[in-house]
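forwarding from the other thread:

> can someone predict this with zinc ion?

sure thing
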Amino acid sequence: MKFLKKPLALFIAFSLLFINCKSGAKVVGDKLKKPLNIILMIGDGMGLAQISAASFINGGLSLDLLTTLGLINTSSANNYITDSAAGATAYSTGQKSYNGAIGVGVDSVSLITILEMAEKNNLATGIVTTCSITHATPACFYAHQPSRTMDKAIANDFYGKGIDLAIGGGKPYFDMEKLKADGYTIATGPNFNWQTNASKYFYFYDDSLHLPSLAQGRGDFLLNATKKAMGTLNNNKKGFFLMVEGSQIDWGGHDNNFDYVVQETIDFDKAIKAAIDFAKADGNTLVIITADHETAGLALNKGSLKNKTIEHSFATGSHSGIMVPIYAFGPGSHLFAGTMHNTKVFDHMKFLFGF
Ligand code: MG
Ligand code: ZN
């Protein structure tokens, strides 16, 4: 009898603990700890081979230290192989759509995004990217257009939205007067020397459409932009939603340029480290790191442990259908363990924000 009592008591105690638990979420004490802030970091085209290669060549990544991991099924509504637009629409709206869709469903009707929900709930919101703010991945968080090619219309969807901060490229697509009328402090150039008392910021890397690659001299832009964004958005005590994209891992893949892929992945990991450091110090921030899809079917065929070199090959110049990893750190991170469709990421963020 005595032998049986202890497991029984434990079983009852655990059952009581889980009665309060919704959506299968883990219980901390007697209730789920939810984050105030969510930072969603998307490495465009960053599959497991890209991460493996970058980690090996760099002698480790901050990603390697995270303990909560899952896998994402990236397919879109109309194609086994997604593009970045459908991939980001799944993350931003929780719906699989067709390739090319910007924040709209299969019927081309607008879907509310997690960033728009955050705005409605008076959270601060921000977008950081190493391409144009109108490019597919960032666009899907604020714009609603039938095609990713409509950069001007996508930029037009930015105005009046209340987004607190945007850092990236695409200046020629935007109307500076409209941004000023919206209350943005606009800065262009290599330094983040904006006024600290402004309410909304739009920071352009330069006057051109896209940012240079790391090899072309972008420097620590992504790291500094991520730090600046977290510091600025954190002034809102209700919380914030920030999307950070490492855009050019994908471009290296399309170019079948291994060094480009590896350098951009290592660069993205520096921003990831900054986000994790912020989350560790803050305690109320969830950091989610994933990709929209893998690019180029990168294979790591041979390597030298001594020289830290890899012989690689690319299966395609396009995207591949392999699952991509998702990592999470902070309150609610346990929800991102396991294998899931890309749409689940939105579901979990919405649940954790309490929207
Ligand atoms: Mg992208
Ligand atoms: Zn791509």
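The two ends are 48 Å apart (CA to CA). thats all i got for now
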